[in-house]
Design a protein that fits this description.
seven-stranded mixed beta sheet; globular; 9 helices; binds S-adenosylmethionine; Rossmann fold
């Protein structure tokens, strides 16, 4: 559940009923995620998935990086916009759950364009010698600033960065937060807002999505 949904479930339903239809494979994946995983709320879900798909289609990226695959919902949504010879690199450290995204990646029309990397994101990103057109960060919050610092130099001019959960259930409004992840997310939002290499805004969709474009 999100900060936004908790405030207005009727509005959330309205938004869902007035968005483009979710592809069949994603419907199936969403159902199986709720049946088979212990934290299904981590999935990007319908509205966010459609946002990722549209942003990706606007860019037609050659190289996408996703940090935090989970069951692959966002991976498949982002893959919808890939250029003909494009690749999405998606990283997750949870090897036990890997069978689930792997099954759906294989079944999807984008199977040859998905490079699913199992491992710790900080280590794996450093091994990739790729320039990014589109990046989606959706993993451990305490590394968000580390991810930003690693990725920014490898983002092309015009590349887009999306980061999930940047409203952190409304906790970003706390003046003196005690929780470490709240401090990091607040610092991350400040860093991006003040970074003249980026133009950005925070979309108040679900738990907040940072949308930044590298100049
Ligand atoms: C919120 S879920 C990702 C949801 C997914 N992007 C989606 O849209 O459905 C976060 C994922 O990040 C992974 N993760 C957390 N810390 C990580 C790390 N240091 N390296 C790689 N993956 C990590 C977790 O295993 C989990 O599957």
């Amino acid at each position: 559940m999100s900060f936004f949904e908790e405030l207005s479930p009727e509005m959330d339903r309205y938004l869902e009923f007035h968005a483009s239809e979710e592809p069949e494979i994603l419907k199936k994946l969403r159902r199986e995620t709720y049946q088979k995983t212990t934290q299904p709320h981590m999935i990007s879900g319908y509205q966010q998935g459609r946002l990722l798909s549209i942003v990706s289609k606007l860019i037609s990226p050659n190289n996408i990086l996703e940090i935090g695959t989970f069951t692959g919902y966002a991976t498949l949504s982002l893959a919808e916009g890939l250029a003909e010879n494009g690749t999405i690199y998606t990283i997750d450290k949870n090897e036990e759950l890997a069978y689930l995204p792997e099954k759906y990646f294989k079944e999807s029309e984008f199977s040859s364009k998905i490079n699913f990397i199992k491992g710790s994101a900080l280590e794996e990103i450093s091994k990739l010698n790729v320039e990014w057109d589109l990046v989606f960060i959706d993993a451990d919050k305490h590394n968000y600033i580390n991810y930003l610092n690693l990725i920014k130099p490898k983002m092309k001019s015009g590349a887009v960065l999306l980061i999930d959960n940047v409203l952190w259930y409304g906790k970003v409004l706390e003046e003196n937060p005690t929780q470490e992840s709240t401090k990091i997310i607040k610092e991350l939002n400040e860093l991006i807002a003040q970074d003249t290499d980026f133009e950005n805004l925070i979309l108040p969709l679900r738990d907040g999505i940072q949308l930044a474009r590298k100049k």
